[in-house]
Amino acid sequence: MKAARKTAIKEHDLVVLKKNMPAERLRAGDVGTVVHIYADHQAYEVEFVTLGGRTVAVLTLDATDVRPVNSREITHARQLVAAGK
Q: Which fold has domain 2-68?
């Protein structure tokens, strides 16, 4: 399984967040773009942006926190909630 992950996610790929991250106003299912891959694909730097192009967060995430997008998935829009709400 580890070898498959190494080839599955590349820089500039879209990935899906697998857990809620309330402090960053992100929810499981949010889609981000990989902007950096750390050694042996153990972690990724992922940028999350609004549909208008505003950066919401750039996070270093463990490989277990994200997954590749599936070609049969569809994106879904949601309103970004202010922090603490």
A: SH3 type barrels. (2.30.30)
